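Hey L., structure's done. Input below.
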Amino acid sequence: MQPKWIFDILFNTPAKRYGACEKVRALVAELDEISVSPDVAHYGEPGTTESRQYYLLDENKTSYCPYPDLV
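Output:
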């Protein structure tokens, strides 16, 4: 895990951020046996809960945070 400020420095433009996400998603698609979780979103995307990405389920169902303060 990395703090958000690291990503703000490394991916300081929308193009850099999008490119990095697409590279990671391509690797996941190549190496993982299931499709990308519906909870995976782009960093900072409105209406998403980034905390859900810390505990993705293998069944690709939406996960729910056991810690309400993180939602």
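The CA atoms of residues 3 and 27 lie 22 Å apart. The longest helix spans residues 14-31.

-- N.
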